Structure formats: C-alpha cells, structure tokens
Amino acid sequence: MKSWVYGAIKKISADYQRSADTHLIKLDIPSLSGIDLYLKDESTHPTGSLKHRLARSLFLYALCNGKITSETTVVEASSGSTAVSEACFARMIGVPFIAVMPRNTARSKIKQIELYGGRCHFVDSATQMRETSLELVSSIDGYFMDQFTYAERATDWRGNNNIAESIFNQLEQEPHPVPHSIIMSSGTGGTSATIGRYIHYKGYETKLVVVDPENSVFYDSFMMHDRSLTLKTGSRIEGIGRPQVEPSFQPDVIDSMTQVPDAASVATILWLESIIGRKAGASTGTNLWGALDVAIKMKAENQQGSIVTLMCDSGERYLDTYYDSVWVENNIGDVSPYLDQLNKIYTV
Ligand SMILES: *Cc1c(COP(=O)(O)O)cnc(C)c1O
Question: Mean pLDDT throughout 117-138?
C-alpha cells in the first residue's frame, strides 16, 4: 500500500512540475502614483481558482497521513471551487470523489465536478453538508477531506513556493519589493493563515489585512475575540464569509480586518473589467476594494509603497449572477454609488 501512496504522491508532484506559477499583475491607477497595486492572478490554475493550491495540499497531506489508499472514496463538503479542484486531483490519483452540496447549487458547478469524474451528493440546505459528509464516509470506505478544518495546516507555511513565498519572490525587482500590505478575504481562512505566518517567519513589516463581506462572522469574531459567534444567513460573495468561525481561521496572524459592503465588491469587479478587460469573481472585488481603501489612506498620508491582493477566480463562472445586472439588482442592490467612487479614483 505504501507504494500505491508514493505513486499517487509522485503523480501530484509531476503535475506540479508541469505547471507554471500564477502571474502577479500590476494595476496602473493614475491617481495613486507612488503606490503600486498588484493582483496575484489565481484564476489561471487548471481548475480555475486558488482552490487548486488547497486541493493539492489537502491531497498530499491526507496521503502522507495515511488517510487515502487506492480504495478510499474522498468526500468533501463544498458547493464551490474546492470540490471542482479536489475532483481534479482525485481523478489524477485514481480515487472516487463525492462532493456534498446543497440541491440548489448552480448547474455549471455540478457539471464541472462531473467533468472531472466526481459525483455530487445533494442535501436540502448548506447547514447539513458537514454532518452528511461525516455520515457518508462512515457508511463507505471514505475519507472526509474537511477543508474548513485542514486548510490552515495542509499548506507548508515556511515556503515551498506557497502563495506567500511566490508573491514575495515575484516582487523582488519592483520599486517596493516588500509590500506595505497584503489584502485577502477568508473562506476557509487557509490562504490568510499561510500569508500571515510567512510574514512572521520572514520578519517582514508587511501588514496582513483581511476583508470580510456582509453575512459573515469573521469580522465580529476578530474584533470581539470570540470564536463562538454564529449567523443564520450565508454570505452572498461566493467563496468567502462564513456563518461560523471555521477552525482554519487564524486571527492572531492578521493585523487588521475591514468589512466591505457586497455592493462595493460587485462594483469593484465591474470596474476592474473596465480597466484590465478581465472578469473576476466577487471575492476579488472584496479584496480589491480593501486594497484600494488602504491605497487611498496611504496616499492621504503621502506614503509610498506596494500593496498586493488576489484575483481568486475568474468571472466567467458568474455570468448569470454577478455579471447579470438584473440578478445584481435583485440580490445585491444598487452598485452605482460604489462605481461612481471607483471611477473617481481612476480618472483623478
Ligand atoms: C476559497 C475562496 C476564497 C478564500 O480563500 P481561503 O483560503 O479559503 O480563505 C476566496 N475566493 C474564492 C473564489 C474562493 O473559492
């Protein structure tokens, strides 16, 4: 069995060897001269989001922990990008994969998971996903990947070309190679944990700012030092914001948090498309709104420096939601006041 496990690890390593790093895009914003803004473009991974990194780490972690063998069915509670990326890695090593998700999950997501040979197991509501996953793994020879628990520990935070090390390497020849701030939102909290730990490990002055959407407990939990907070409603910004404080969320490596209105997040992706011609998911809007907020404050204080944030996934996945103005009006509200603010930043 050890040789099967090692074979699986080698398949994942070989895939990694064949892959390129993701681009660090520099945004040109005339009114913010002296402040360099960068977007780490995670949409270009083969499975379309930063969850590609997470899925690779979770599979390697589970394999090395002896949790996955040739007979194991891998189960995850995810209606989103994580299930898509994990389905890809499950197929790569030849084990079955089941995503437990709400019945109302978008058809396009289900199709993508099935494209990679994954199966979808439906529950009536998001609150049943975890429990059903646990039941499922005990009834079959299964392993629950459990992204919200293991995201923070499956990634090697010391480096190994994790996202933080990659960002710092890519900035090496820039005018401000050590960024003033890195801005990231939290879903599992895994990415912000990796970035925050790496900043500490290397002794950088960089501040980690975590941005949170509406209908999420992360912000209040951070401010009140209370991990027991819960909410009844879910976040409308796909991939980020949670109704409970997930185990992977690591507040002690975060320097500050801010809340971003959902309408501002959506306005920001529309604005981003108008300046770089690329569509991004709404969490990228949350990130970029937070980054612009830091930039404007730096400008007001006559500071210079660089700021990095992430493009988490592409907007092509959301043509019938965030990029549909009727959907936005009915589900998010009026984005025009935020668009006006953004257009002012760009034209001044
Ligand atoms: C998961 C996800 C995030 C948040 O990343 P974490 O590392 O889970 O905190 C942001 N945006 C999108 C689109 C995601 O899928």
Answer: 94
